[in-house]
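Reopening closed ticket. The problem is back. First fold of the pair:
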Amino acid sequence: MEDSLNMNPGQNILEALAAEPKNLWKRILIFAVVLAIAAWGATSVDFNGITQSGAKIAGSVINGIMHPNTELLFNLTTDGVPFLVLQTIAIAILGTIFGALLAIPISFLSATNIVPRPVAMIFRAIVLFIRTIPSLMWALIWIRVTGPGAFCGVVTQSICSIGMVSKMYVTAIENLDTGILESLDAAGCNTFEKIRVGVLPQLLASFISTAIYRFDINLKDATTLGIVGAGGIGSPLVQSISSAKYHNVGAFLWALIILVVIIEWLSTKIRTRLAHGRQ
């Protein structure tokens, strides 16, 4: 014991390295497999260089960013950037709120430490099905039901949020302190009482942090969903690109850049406060 205490840090490091398992061949094998997969994937990618028209369009987009349409930036009508940005934010907020709230009962019914395993497997299959379909596909489906517009974007984002948020909620629920649940069980509490008294207080910060993270994703997705007519700034952005109005494109892109930077800063601040338990 005294010898180990008197040993200098350098000797401790050397001993730790000597005691480390010798798995060099395993690492070489893993590296070779990854390299082979990457090489196989590269065979399906054909790059024929940048065409002259492509280079011209890229230059026009850069010029549009450097010289945006300022009239469009400060246009306060429904065709202006401020309205479209606010509509995009509204779609992301509503989609996140509805999705996060609907994900709560689904995630509890998917957690094996809350409900019997067969029940949990059924609801996990539902979550997996939702996550399997991309957001653009959901948007195309719901456009047929609700018609194009912001409502379609909200419904699409709500469903997509359920898929991702439920998965993260389930992970948090299954890492709960089970001692509290056992105490409530012994007191004769039913499932809903256990959730309200013993579970939600432990999960509140994690749930809020997950919802904020999903809002970041939804804000960017709201722009993409606009391409297929689900409201927001995406649709006029695509129309401007198609009609070669690159100064308008620059105005829309500047608005999105500023919006994403502000939201990212705010969400990081909030998640940091939640992680450190500050109010």
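Second fold of the pair, where the issue appears:
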Amino acid sequence: MGPKQGDNGPMQIHLDLIVAFLAVMETGGVNAAARRLGLSRSVVSKRIMDLEAALGVGLFVRSTVQMTPTEAAQEYYARTAFLVQELEDAANDVRPDASGLSGTLRLAAPLSLSISHLRDVYVAFAGQHPDLHLAIDLDDRVVDLAGGGYDVAIRVGRLPDSSLKARRLADSRRVLCGAPSYLEQHGEPQALEELIQHRTIGYANTPTSQMWRFASANPDGPEQTVRVLPGFVSNNGETMRAAAIAGMGLVVLPEFLVNDALRDGQLRAVLADTQPLADGVYVVYPPGRGKSRKVRAFIDHLVEAFTGGPPWAID
């Protein structure tokens, strides 16, 4: 059903047009969108053109090989994806036979933590809810939940003030460490002030990679900030760990990334009495998504998985 001219206003945009648009955005093309929706390619194409006519703006730049979303399409997707998802969730939640979860749950999660410790958690949740499609996007960068159409995210760090709702799952201690080969060649620092004299490894996903923050030795004292000059920078924790093991410098990394290397002697903690400021592991979600049964169920599943403390804690 295409757009219709209202009696006293502009064209009405029917939901099936928006659903077709979302499917094209999320699958990357008309053919894949048609397969997802169980429609013909011509029907999906017609709905996209009807939506463009109703909006009065082009949503895609078309070529013989692909459809590239315009800036207007990106903005429209960010504003409509959650609305349609809310409608689908409401329908699923009120059906008399809605005993299980269905629809799609879109999760954004950090790559390093997911690969090292949370893969089995995701798989177990999916296995418990076979009618639910779990779509997981792994990226160590902080993504825009609303703009990306995500229902929920897992984040490691110190959360900035935002409109997102958050639940803390666990502490994430960080460790200052280096390879024995590096420490033997360059010496082990005895005070924070000496770190500026050492080669260091930085994290590219934070603008403060040159500023390392440490807790005060005095419980009531202020935190301490030390400036370093990283000679090796990466946006991936595993790569930073590999560089440290290879003796390329000192590094501050989450405990979940270095615990095995510390146990095996590939890395050695330094300045053990002065701890880097700890991060937290959080599950975050937009305010409206907390009412969704599938989001609540996933959060409960994560909380249970972290009961008793994080699985990577060093004894």
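Update: turned out to be a display glitch only; the data is intact. The chain has three domains: 9-77, 100-172+280-305, 174-277. The first strand starts at residue 4 and ends at 5. Please close again.
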